[in-house]
Amino acid sequence: QMQLVESGGGLVQAGGSLRLSCKASVRSFSMYALAWFRQDPGQDRRFVAAINSGGTTTYSDSVKGRFIISRDNDNETAYLQMNSLVLEDTAVYYCALGLQGRSATVKTMRDWRVYRNWGQGTQVTVSS
Fold it and tell me: E strands along the chain, which residues?
């Protein structure tokens, strides 16, 4: 059974940092692309960052230069290091798993519709 569990969310002041973790329980973890999306109440789920099996990354314009996505295949975990946080980063953050091998490009990884496995989300709140 495929499972993704996010952790690491919380309350942080603007300008601070948080690191989110996404622990997966899935066979052949290293073959899949991993992504982070975020969502506020009344808003659509929005792309944040993704990384494919080869380590290629892509980011939304709003977080590029501030956030870093990484993966630890031995521990079957994805991370999102969030730096220089701003109020607009407040959201529930979800990790997702999908797309194998060459199917995961910088274009395809940004589309939520390609992912079939999702975590339950972790709340990030940035205060002034």
Answer: 3-7, 10-13, 18-25, 32-39, 46-51, 57-59, 67-72, 77-82, 91-100, 117-118, 122-127
Kindly state the tokens that stand for 111. Answer: 């589309």
Radius of gyration of the chain measured on its C-alpha atoms: 14
List, for the chain, all residue ranges whose pLDDT scores fall below the cut of 50.
none
Stated as kind and residue range, the H or E segment containing 98 is: strand 91-100
Q: Which of 60, 18, 66, 72 is nearest to 36 (CA)?
A: 60
**Chain CA centroid to CA 16, Å:** 18
Of 13, 18, 24, 15, residue with least CA distance to 38:
18
Q: Identify the burial level of 88 via C-beta atoms within 10 angstroms of its C-beta, where 0-12 means exposed, 13-18 middle and 19 or more buried.
A: exposed
Contact 22, 78 (CB under 8 A): yes
How far apart are the C-alpha atoms of 30 and 14, rounded to whole Å? 34
